[in-house]
From TrEMBL:
The gene is dppE_2. GO terms for molecular function: peptide transmembrane transporter activity. One of its GO terms (cellular component) is ATP-binding cassette (ABC) transporter complex. It is found in: Cell membrane. This is Dipeptide-binding protein DppE. One of its GO terms (biological process) is peptide transport. Belongs to the bacterial solute-binding protein 5 family. It is a lipid-anchor. It comes from Oceanobacillus picturae.
Length: 549
C-alpha cells in the first residue's frame, strides 16, 4: 500500500499543493468491429492497450465552462488541456503554453502557445480559442458555476455580475500564438488555477458553427492526450489516443473505455471479473480490503460536509446550527461507517496547505468543530429559547441517492435523536434534482462535498461569501466577505494567511455548514496497470498511464 503525501510548493509564479470542486448505469463492452485503429503504428485490435475505467454516472457536461463536477472534469481532463497542466509531481507545468513571461508588478502574464498545439480535427490551437473560452466562462448568460474561478482576471467579477463588459476583461490575443492575461491583483498560485478544466480553450470556429459541439462524440474536438471516439449516453464512452496532441509520444494507451456504473459494489464485482482495471472499495468491504496488495491510498484536498439553510426554520439561529454540528461524532463516522481511512474533519480546510512560515494551515488554525453532546444540548436549549420555540420545527435531512450518502445520513439521524432528542426525517433524490434543489435553497439540511479547484485555502473559504454560487446556505456576513476579499488581494503572504485563519474561525462561529470528513482517494488497480496519476488537487491523469500484457 502506498501513501502519497500532499506537498505545497509556494513559488513566485505558482504556489502548490493541492487542487478542486465538488467531490461527487449499464457498462458497455469494447468491440473491435468497425472501430478505427488510432493506436501506435503496427498495433492490431488484439494488442491494443485499452484501459477500462468507471465514471460512475453520465458526465453533467463536456462543456468546460459548465461541467463543474468530478464526473465531468475527470474524463474531460484527459480530452483537453489548458495553458498549464499538473505534472506527475502535482505542480503546474508548461502545456499548451510552452513558456510565459510575468510583468514586474506580478499582474500580467504573457503566454506563448506551442506551434505544434493542434485540435483533434487538425486546426491549430490559437490564442483566440482561449479568449473565446474565458469570455464564455465569465459571461453571465453562460451561467457557469465555475465562473468565480475567473474573478482573478481584471474585470472578471464585474462582467460575470452584469456590471461590466467582455471588452473590459484583462485577456487579449496579442497574435495567433500569444495570449496575454492581466489580473486584478498579483496571484502567486495563478498557474495552478488555470490548470483547472474551467480554463480549457474552446475551438472558436467549431463552437460558432455548432454551439452544441461538446454534446456528442461526432462533433467533439479535443486538444489533449485523447479524443472522444464514441459516447453512448448514460452507458459508456470510448477515448482514443489523440495523434494531433503535441505530446502524443508520451501517451502509451490506445484507448480508454469508461463505464457508467453508479454502485460501488457492482463496480468492485466488475473489477474482480476483469471488466474494469480500477475500482473503489465498497464501504462494507473496506476493513477486509484496505490493506490488500493493489490498494492505493492517496490524499485528496476536500471536505464532505452538510449545509444548513439559514433561511428556513430552525436554522436561522446560529446556536441551533452549532447544536446540530456538535451532536455529530465525526470520528465514529470514519471508523464505523465510511471505513476508508479518511480523517475525521474538525474544521473546514483540509491539511496539506503550507503557510509562508512552513506550518500546515490545519495545524496552525487548530480544531474548530468537535463532538460535544453536552454542549450541543445546552446550545439547543439556548437557541430554542431565543426563538421562542416550545418545540423544534420539523427537520428534514436531504441527500443525493447513494448507499454511502444514505449510511452517513442515517448515522446523523441517530446522533440527533440520541444526543439532542430530535427526530429528523430523511429524504433522498437523484443527484441532478438534489443539486438543483440545493442551489434553489429548497433544502433545510443537506449533504455536500467540496474538492479543491486550485492549491490555496482561499478556494474553499471563498465559497461562502455572500451571493457565491457555491454558498447554497443563504448565509451572509459582511465581516467574512471582507476577510475573503483581503485574502484574495493581499500581497503580504503572512497577512493573507492571517485573513484566511480568521475567516475559517468565523465560519465555525456562525456554522452555516458543518464538517464530516476530509477526502482521500482509495482505489484498487489490476496488476497490469501503472502510471495513473491522481492529484491531491486536480483530476485524474491518464496521460502517463500504461497497461502491460
Amino acid at each position: 500500500m502506498r501513501k502519497k503525501l500532499l506537498v505545497l510548493l509556494m513559488a513566485a509564479m505558482a504556489i502548490f499543493v493541492l487542487a478542486a470542486c465538488t467531490a461527487n448505469e449499464n457498462a458497455g463492452t469494447e468491440t473491435d468491429e468497425g472501430e478505427e485503429n488510432n493506436g501506435e503504428e503496427g498495433n492490431t485490435a488484439s494488442d491494443e492497450k485499452v484501459l477500462y475505467m468507471n465514471n460512475g454516472v453520465e458526465p453533467t457536461s463536456f462543456d468546460p465552462a459548465v461541467g463543474f463536477d468530478a464526473v465531468s472534469w475527470n474524463p474531460l481532463n484527459n480530452l483537453m488541456e489548458g495553458l498549464t497542466r499538473l505534472g506527475e509531481g502535482d505542480t503546474p507545468e508548461a502545456a499548451i503554453a510552452e513558456s510565459w513571461d510575468l510583468s514586474d508588478d506580478g499582474k500580467t502574464y504573457t503566454f506563448h502557445l506551442r506551434e505544434d498545439a493542434n485540435w483533434s480535427n487538425g486546426d491549430p490551437v490559437v490564442a483566440e480559442d482561449f479568449v473565446f473560452a474565458w469570455e464564455r466562462l465569465l459571461n453571465p448568460e453562460t451561467g457557469s458555476s465555475a465562473a468565480f474561478l475567473g474573478y482573478f482576471i481584471e474585470g472578471g467579477e464585474a462582467y460575470n455580475s452584469g456590471e461590466g463588459s467582455a471588452e473590459d476583461l484583462g485577456i487579449e490575443a496579442v497574435d495567433e500564438k500569444t495570449f496575454e492575461v492581466t489580473l486584478a491583483a498579483p496571484t502567486g498560485y495563478f498557474l495552478h488555477v488555470i490548470s483547472n478544466p474551467a480554463f480549457f480553450p474552446v475551438n472558436a470556429a467549431v463552437a460558432e458553427e455548432n454551439p452544441e459541439w461538446f454534446a456528442e462524440a461526432e462533433s467533439f474536438v479535443s486538444n489533449g492526450p485523447f479524443a472522444l471516439d464514441s459516447w453512448e449516453h448514460d452507458s459508456e464512452m470510448v477515448f482514443v489516443k489523440n495523434d494531433e496532441y503535441w505530446d502524443a509520444d508520451t501517451v502509451k494507451l490506445d484507448k480508454v473505455h469508461w463505464a457508467m456504473v453508479n454502485d460501488t459494489n457492482t463496480e468492485y464485482q466488475m473489477f474482480e471479473s476483469g471488466e474494469l482495471d480500477v475500482t473503489e472499495i465498497p464501504s462494507e468491504m473496506a476493513e477486509q480490503l484496505i490493506n490488500e496488495d493493489g490498494v492505493v491510498i492517496e490524499d485528496q484536498a476536500g471536505l464532505y460536509f452538510y449545509r444548513f439553510n439559514v433561511t428556513k426554520e430552525p436554522f436561522q439561529n446560529a446556536k441551533i446550527r452549532k447544536a446540530f454540528a456538535l451532536a455529530v461524532n465525526q470520528q465514529d463516522i470514519v471508523d464505523y461507517v465510511t471505513k476508508n481511512g479518511e480523517k475525521a474533519a474538525t474544521a473546514f480546510v483540509s491539511s496539506g496547505f503550507e503557510s509562508p512560515s512552513g506550518n500546515d494551515f490545519r495545524d496552525e488554525n487548530g480544531d474548530l468543530v468537535e463532538f460535544n453532546p453536552e454542549e450541543a444540548k445546552q446550545l439547543l436549549e439556548e437557541g430554542m429559547e431565543e426563538e421562542g420555540y416550545d418545540e423544534l420545527p420539523e427537520v428534514t435531512l436531504s441527500y443525493s441517492t447513494s448507499e454511502a450518502h444514505k449510511a452517513i445520513a442515517e448515522t446523523l439521524q441517530s446522533a440527533f435523536t440520541d444526543n439532542l432528542g430530535i427526530d429528523v426525517t430523511l429524504e433522498n433524490t437523484e443527484s441532478n434534482v438534489f443539486l438543483d434543489d440545493q442551489k434553489a435553497l429548497n433544502h433545510q439540511l443537506s449533504r455536500s462535498s467540496f474538492l479543491f479547484d486550485y492549491g490555496d485555502p482561499v478556494n474553499f473559504l471563498e465559497s461562502f461569501i455572500t451571493d457565491s454560487s457555491m454558498n447554497r446556505t443563504g448565509w451572509s456576513n459582511e465581516e467574512y466577505d471582507e476577510l475573503i476579499a483581503n485574502a484574495k488581494t493581499e500581497t503580504d503572504e503572512e497577512k493573507r494567511w492571517e485573513y484566511m485563519y480568521e475567516a475559517e474561525k468565523l465560519l465555525a462561529e456562525e456554522m452555516p455548514i458543518f464538517p464530516i470528513h476530509y477526502y482521500n482517494q482509495v482505489h484498487m488497480y489490476q496488476d497490469s496497470v501503472s502510471g495513473i496519476v491522481r492529484h491531491p488537487v486536480g483530476y485524474v491523469e491518464l496521460k502517463w498511464a500504461d497497461k502491460s500484457e
